Amino acid sequence: MRVISHDSSTAKSRSHCILLCLLSLFAAIAFASGAQAQERRPRRPQPEQAPPAEPPPAPPAEEKQEVKDRWLAVLNGKVHTASGPVLDGVTILCRNGRIAEIGPNLTLPDDCEQLDAAGHFVYPGLIAVRSQGIHGGGSPEDGTDVFSFNMSLALGAGITTAVTGDTAAKLTYGTLEGMIVKRGLFESLSYNSRDPAGKRRVREGLDRVRQHLRDVAAHEEEKRLNPEAKAPDDKWIRGPYATYLRLLKGEAAALVDANSAWELLQLADLAETYGIRIVVRGAYEAWTVAPKLSRAGMAAIITPRQRVDENTRSNRPTGSTIENARILHERGIRVAVTPTGSLFGPGYGISLGGLAGRDLLHLALEAAFAVRGGLSNSEAIKTVTIDAARILGIDSRVGSIEVGKDADFVITDGDLLHYMTLVRWTVVNGRIAYDKDKEGIYSHIRPGGDVNAPPPDEYWPRRLGVEWRRSRDVNAQP
Amino acid sequence: MNRLGNQSPQERTECTQGESEMRVNCGQRSMCMNQRSGPALLCLLSLFAAICFPHLAVAQEISAYRVGKIITMNEKDEVINNAVLIVRDGKIAEIGKASQVQIPEGAEVIEMSQCWLVPGFVELHNHSAGASTDLHDYVYLTNPDLRTLESVNPGTENFKLARAGGVTSALLISGSGTNMSGLGTVIKFAEGQMDDVVLKFPGSIKIAQAGNPERYWYRVGRSFMNYNTRQTLAAAQKYHRAWLDFESGKSTEQPLFDPIYDPFRDLFRGKFIASMHTQQFQVVMMSILMIQGEFGIKTVLDHSTFDGYKNAPTLHDHKDIVTIVGPRQLYFDPTQRRIFGIAQRWWQGAVRTLGINTDSPVIPQEELSYQAAMACYYGWRTYEAIRGLTRIGAEALLLEDRIGSLSPGKDADFCIWSGDPIDPRSVCWITVIDGKVVRDARNELRRF
Fold first, then answer.
1. For residue B321, what pLDDT is reported?
2. How far apart, in whole angstroms, are the C-alpha atoms of residue B23 and residue B195?
3. In chain A, fewer beta carbons within 10 Å around the N or the C end?
4. Cβ neighbours of residue B375 under 8 Å, at least 6 residues apart?
5. Shared-domain flag, residues A50 and A99
6. CATH number at residue A156
7. All structural domains of chain B with their residue ranges
8. 3-state class percentages of chain B: helix first, strand second, coil last, to nearest 5
9. According to the CATH classification, is domain B59-119+404-441 in 2.70.98.60?
């Protein structure tokens, strides 16, 4: 209030300046809420000297400044591309969040941010094929707190993309830019023995839509002879029929929770009969029917160490095995891995309850259990990177380190699947979204690889402290 | 006491080779016969055994394991590369470098030159004796005389999966829903009958300081629970002293036998331990100061989680306390905004008798080594973690002369791993208990 007092004093010019700013702000708000607002605005007499608030002059079109390219180079790391070879000591050059070039001795642009990953391993960012608690509910860009602690925790576990609901969303710490990778990943389909009538309805619906597609094709033929031919009615294709249409046209895959061999076989039949793509989640008995699932072109989201006892009242092999991932892979079934859960929550969540190793914070170690079951190290890494991306249908953007793909990396201090490996940096869309040393959550564990490091100093009260926080502070001056 | 545990090995050494083979395959003690009863039948049965169960018929008198690395976990912390271990009659006969150990003639040789041979893991906190659910009775707030022994059910899936995780021994204890919930049993995850399985009873007495007994129906609080525990121990101690006075002749009056307080006598004599369900700074502090400090009871701090590690300096005055961490391995300190590995924090507090537990079925028994992996992820170290899974557990149970490490004369309880046993990628191929192969996963589909 003091600022807009009528006193003309030595600080007049400064107060004018502040006044101008305030008025501009006010004007901006007023304009935003409608043109009429400006008419009603003045309730208080304006100071005489106050110049009228005016919008800043628009720059001439030809002088419009070009958006500067954002460069990031990851140097000297051992790069596991996931889709191809391991490249030792190469540079990954990223431009505006995409990988622009990979190779030795690249020439870097002048204003390129450089990340020296010497002695570290570079992997594509991990993909959580199912998640809870990282992004907000509903549409992620509306419901997500991009400064949430869970996001930092998940980034600290190397995750850069997570499926929330049926959307694949990036863990874009501190920004909403480039968060959404793909919406509508799957159509959900209920097809199980608990609801036999429902199963019949699904088949009847698929039959009807398939007949419709044939009618449409026949109509296309007919139109050539008779341009007046009436197109088949498609007004009824709504609700479940719209789902069936997308499935039959191959526009989406169906995501189905199924575990027992019997349910899996039923789904395989459905997939083969109608030529639709089915991704099964759970699938702990898939090893018993792998050839059939493979023939039906199914993919599986599994938990390698899921533990289910044998059903002794069955006439077929039952129960879980640690070798599930290997068997499915050998049969040509694409596998993605999601962790097992605990008393404190599901494996696809994030839990600080303390039962470590049974949530997304240790996604990579769940893949390590697939190695216990006989899968190779490199194939196991694929289950949380490129193969997960392929199952989700987002492999054109994420899941491997290739030119043209998104610059999402997890840079670790060792083999990703080793139990003493920690994430050093996580890069999302070409931005360093997590830095172990600055973030503080894990910085006291083996700092610089030192297993004998002393415990960190304790402090009170809580402080977020370091430069990292300051640089990420939303109120900070640019 | 210990009657079940101590009888079985002597009986076992009396059995001949043929008999022990038969016991593998028949799984019944009644089939165990002496040599007079028909050698022909014996041969026939052996043949039958060899045909039906070729991978199990290793229970010969002598077997030799030639491996890439043996982690002995003995007092000298020896690790031997290219090593041989000889088993004779269920005990370790010899152990050393392949170039120095003579493999006896007629010994069955198991050659796994790329693999590690590691002592069987010792679990100090398992509730799933035979069932898959928690083993517990909520009768009174203090039920020290309930026995887990009655619930042991050998041959369940849990037993098989424990072997798959490289666990060969476990202390089966009752739950933490009451302040004292009964006597624990040390078992081996062996095949066969109770005599084959039970190693020591009582193995421990379960005492829960806080963090569960509050659920008792009239909602007890922490101060009453401490009062209750202290009163019970004091009464038991009084009973023990009265008997000591009578036995030493100080008193001529024979005390009345009390079935509730009698098991405490061996506890006060230091023959078995108190398994303390304890966690958080204050509760762990009371466990140390009351149970060990006031009553001098050998104590194992089970769980020891949350910020319990802040008691590390107090623990320096109580050297013989064993601390085991689990099933929680991480503690998020909101003030520091850090995730701490609990085992690592105890270790940094210079606590060296440090082990790991699963609290099975909270964490499945077969994931004991994964608990250690988690402790290492959050800062602990591999060798210390393996020691925490083996020798520390055996020492805590006062059974270090039999299990938990590999040296001549000790029980042949060990596993052959494809590599570092802490690594979740490693496979436990072979599990041997009392010299007998109880798991050989080389030619079978593995559950775990």
1. 95
2. 12
3. C
4. B325, B329, B341, B342, B343, B344, B356, B385, B388
5. no
6. 2.30.40.10
7. 11-52, 59-119+404-441, 121-403
8. 35, 25, 40
9. no
Closest CA to B151 of B174, B125, B119, B167: B174
Contact A278, A256 (CB under 8 A): yes
Q: Please check whether residue B330 touches A, CB under 8 A.
A: yes
The answer to whether residue A476 scores a pLDDT higher than 50 is no
pTM strictly above 0.90: no
| Spatial CB neighbours of B235, under 8 Å, sequence gap ≥ 6 | B261
Please, what is the end-to-end C-alpha distance for chain B in angstroms?
36
Q: B121-403 maps to which CATH number?
A: 3.20.20.140
Q: Is B337 on the interface with A (CB under 8 A)?
A: yes
pLDDT in tens, B381-428: 999 999 999 999 999 999 999 999 999 999 999 999 999 999 999 999
A38 and A85 together in one domain: no
DSSP state of B294: I
> Could you say which of B334, B339, B448 has the minimum Cβ distance to residue A442?
B339
Residues in chain A closer than 8 A to B342 (CB atoms): 354
Look up tokens 């061996």; give the residue: B266
Domain that holds residue A365: 188-384
Query: Which residues 266-325 of chain B have a CB within 8 Å of chain A?
Result: 305-306
DSSP H/E element including A371: helix A363-372
Distance of CA B73 to the CA centre of its chain: 15
Write the CA distances from A275 to A201, A293, A415, B113, integer angstroms.
Answer: 17, 13, 40, 49
Q: What does the pLDDT look like over B109-166, one tens digit per residue?
A: 999 999 999 999 999 999 876 554 556 777 788 989 888 888 888 878 888 999 999 9
- Residue A7 Cα, gap to closest chain B Cα (Å): 49
Domain boundary among A14, A44, A63: A63
Contact A372, B425 (CB under 8 A): yes
Tell whether A212 and A342 lie within a shared domain: yes
- Rounded distance, CA B329 to CA A145, Å? 28
Identify whether the C-beta of residue B345 lies closer than 8 Å to the C-beta of residue B338. no
A376 and A283, same structural domain? yes
Structure tokens of A398? 């994420």
**A268 plus A334 within the same structural domain:** yes
Q: How, if at all, do strands B79-88 and B91-97 pair?
A: antiparallel
User: Quick one: pLDDT band at residue A56, thresholds 50, 70, 90?
Assistant: low
Q: Round to whole Å and give the CA distance between A274 and A267.
A: 11
What backbone phi and psi angles, to 5 degrees, belong to A245?
-65, -45
B377–A362 C-beta distance less than 8 A: yes
Name the 3-class secondary structure at B417: strand
Domain boundary among A41, A63, A85: A63
Q: Render the burial of B138-167: b for 16+ CB within 10 Å, e for the rest.
A: eeebbbbbbebbebbebebebbbbbbbbbb
- Is residue A297 located within the same domain as residue A257? yes
Instruction: Judge if A194 and A123 occupy the same domain.
Output: no
ipTM for the predicted complex comes to: 0.85
CB of B341 within 8 Å of any CB in chain A? yes
* Same domain? A100 vs A51: no
Residue numbers of B between 373 and 392 with CB closer than 8 Å to A: 373-374, 376-379, 381-382
CA distance A19 to chain B (A): 42
